[in-house]
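Aim 2 progress update. The chain analyzed this quarter is reproduced below.
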Amino acid sequence: MRIPPLTIAAVAAVVVAVASALATANAPGGDAVDAGKRAFADIARVLQSPRCRNCHPAGNAPLQTDAGVPHAMNISRASVAAGVPCASCHQDRNSEAIHIAGGPPGAPHWGLPPAETPMVFEGKTVTELCEQLKDPARNGRRSLAMLLDHVAHDPLVLWGWDPGGKRTTPPLSHDKLVAAFTAWAAADGACP
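Predicted structure tokens:
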């Protein structure tokens, strides 16, 4: 039996459509990518808030307060190189925990990111921040899964939601940040 050419073309079109649908199903879909991009906009709001931005500055000196003023006492990466680590003043907990009101904030391994991978959050566009964050050469060799674990569990990150004193917290709850980060990672780090 001879199949008419039009039917063969129709079958071929269906095969191509099914193959395309399967390929799309195995990659983050348009909805997932769009959700990931929207999620990153929320992530960026947190990363550029004072609790994150102050230790991820554009220069070599940390910032202080919600206004992002340069750290008192001329502290910088050079201070650490000269033998004055951040832990000289910033202990592993907030000063209020040891009954010193208004003293330095604290959390385990307090300090700036390494100079080789400074992870600058200050002054970046949302897209620049996204591209930097997902680039292992600029993020400390972390995969998206490792970044998610860092955001979800690192005590220094968690400190942002319990900063002590009169310090503000980030604009999203920690749970909402982790949910946004999860959506962004599921979208393979799609950037807005």
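Helices lie at 5-26, 30-47, 50-53, 77-81, 126-134, 144-153, 155-159, 174-186. The chain is about 45% helix and 0% strand. These observations will guide the mutagenesis experiments scheduled for the next reporting period.
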